[in-house]
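In response to a reviewer's request, we include the raw inputs and outputs for one of the modeled complexes. The two entities were modeled together in a single run.
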Amino acid sequence: MWSSLDVSTSALTAQRIRLHAITSNLANISTTHNEQGEPTPYQPRFVIFQTAEEIGPPGAPGVRVASVEVDEKEPLWKYQPGHPDAVRSGPMTGYVAYPNINMMTEMTDALEAARAYEANLGAIEITKDLLHQTLRIIA
Amino acid sequence: MYESLFNATTLPVLQQVVSFTQARHQLLASNIANLDVPGYRARDLPVSEFQRQLAEAIRQRNETPAFRSPGEPETYATSRGLEPVELEDLPEMILYHDDGTKGLEYQVSEMLKNQMQHNLAVSLMTHQFNLLRAAINERT
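The model returned the following structure tokens for the whole complex.
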């Protein structure tokens, strides 16, 4: 019974890390510079979840974030010839590369992560309730 | 006289459990307080080690009959010598690169377990005292 608390807790942490990635994508929706200040558009991040056999009872594994991946998709090109990051030569002259992030998808994912977090909180409440009921028998 | 009265029951065991959970609660609270400190390594008391020592102490007490001179207190050597250990691998570490161990959910859930263990021990203790009081008063 105690270990189902661990399972729910692992899911809470995983969903929060996922929410971190999503908020980072939304925050950088029009970022055209990278950390070094070079004109490279931000690439969206996403997390990979993996079942964690070491958490929880055998047969009911928890979850953990295996890795945070960078989505290498083609940037969105906007025509802004006056922009300092605009391409100077070639067929894309005058275009600025913006991150290819869909706000609708990110918001839906954020909502899903929040709901999953709430669901796991609900599971924790139920587990806690059951434990309380059991302990009431002896004390 | 009081030693034999109180030590005949499970009160010494419960006492150790309560002092252990109290010490652990302090550590968990300090982990939560230091959650945003860069490079902070979360610490915890080893629960399984405590359980092992307690089980060992109970086994020893049950094996050796109490040939003690009157007034000599019964020794219960547990929860002493338990040092806090640094937590190794918490899931949230993937987000940070300062080698610190973080994990709010983990700490809170450990706190919940610890609190329930503490409450259980305290209510069992209350129960024991109620029984003793009933015996002394010859009524419930």
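As requested, we also summarize the result in words. Residues 104-137 of chain B form the longest helix (34 residues). Chain B touches chain A through 18 residues (CB under 8 Å).
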